[in-house]
Amino acid sequence: MAASPVRLTNPDKLLWRDISKADLRDYYEAAATRLMPFVANRPLTIIRAPDGFKGEVFYQRHAMKGMSKLIGTVKVKGEPKPYLMITSAEALPALAQIAAVEIHPWASTASALEQPDYLTFDLDPDKGLSFADLRRAAFDMRDYLHRLGLGAFLKVTGGKGLHVVAPLQPRAEWEEAKEFARALVEAMAADKPDAYTTNVRKARRKGRVFLDYLRNGRTATAVAAWSPRAREGAPIAVPIAWSFIEKKRAVPRFTLDRAAAAFKTADPWKDYERACRPLPSLEALKKL
DNA sequence: GCCGGTT
DNA sequence: AACCGGCAACGCCAA
DNA sequence: TTGGCG
User: Fold this and answer.
1) How far is the CA of A222 from the C1' of D2 (A)?
2) Within 7 Å: CB of A216 and strand C?
3) How far is CA A237 from CA A144, A188, A249, A267, A271, in A?
4) Which residue, A1, A69, A143, A153, shows the most beta carbons closer than 10 Å to its own?
5) For A187-203, what is each residue's pLDDT tens digit?
6) pLDDT, tens digit, for every residue of A74-133?
7) Would you say the C-beta of A200 is within 7 Å of strand D?
């Protein structure tokens, strides 16, 4: 591999307990093939932690002086300042250099910024719920999506929840997609009101799984597949197969320092591109 | 991590 | 020369 | 009305 043109200052500085900036750069380079499809050519919000995840942590969505030229930008209609965007894996070491420990892309690409190309549903279990409860919610979500003709792809977030992602052909606009996502989770909650809630305010109540559709706003973002997380132990968000969680007793956990094994396994999302569908109508949802 | 403004 | 704030934004609720 | 929080 060619030498990186990015100079890493303080390569031994620890960003997690035993994971340095150099380790973060090495991870990004090793993950590039899996990671780039989810972060390239999309406006990005990054979470930076120059003094480690226990120090000051801040979001950044616009370019700043001092950033490598490898980190580009994209003009977004109606926004005064251009957003961060990368177009090639060469930019990943530059992200490590600025201690970008999480990557949160828009759900739309530069070629169609106003039409999202996937929906994300964040399944967030109330404290005390078993993994079986969370898993049931995920399979329930998949069932709804499949009955609507949509694909359903699963990932662990690196936190306590799961993301279910439905790839779209980028036709419908943000507002329509978000309304569809809202209607879908509300249909699920109406069907099993004791198991699910869609209300942020009640998210912590009554031992339910919170079905969060709000990730599907234009400037709202969800963590990218393969992004590290600014949390204890350097967990990473990882695509997983549905069969993988069938017998699990807890949310599977992947960490940055042990990610190499995950790269070797077959991509559980290999059919992702082929699964892109137009956003179904709200009428289709009502008829379920 | 780094810039720019303030002390 | 040292220090410090900024680096997203949106809804909701309590103060 | 504002500030903190998720």
Assistant:
1) 29
2) no
3) 23, 25, 18, 14, 19
4) A153
5) 999 999 889 988 887 76
6) 999 888 889 999 999 999 999 999 999 999 999 999 999 999 999 999 999 988 889 999
7) yes
Residue at minimum CA to C1' distance from nucleotide C10:
A220
Distance A51 CA to C5 C1' (A): 16
CB of A45 nearer than 7 A to strand C:
yes
Radius of gyration of chain A (CA): 19
What are A12-35's pLDDT values in tens digits? Answer: 999 999 999 999 999 999 999 999
**A190 C-beta neighbours (distance < 10 Å), count:** 10
Q: What is the per-residue pLDDT for A66?
A: 81
ipTM over 0.85: no
**Which parts of the protein come within 7 Å of strand B, by CB position?**
A 9-10, 13, 21, 48, 50-51, 56, 58, 64-66, 97-99
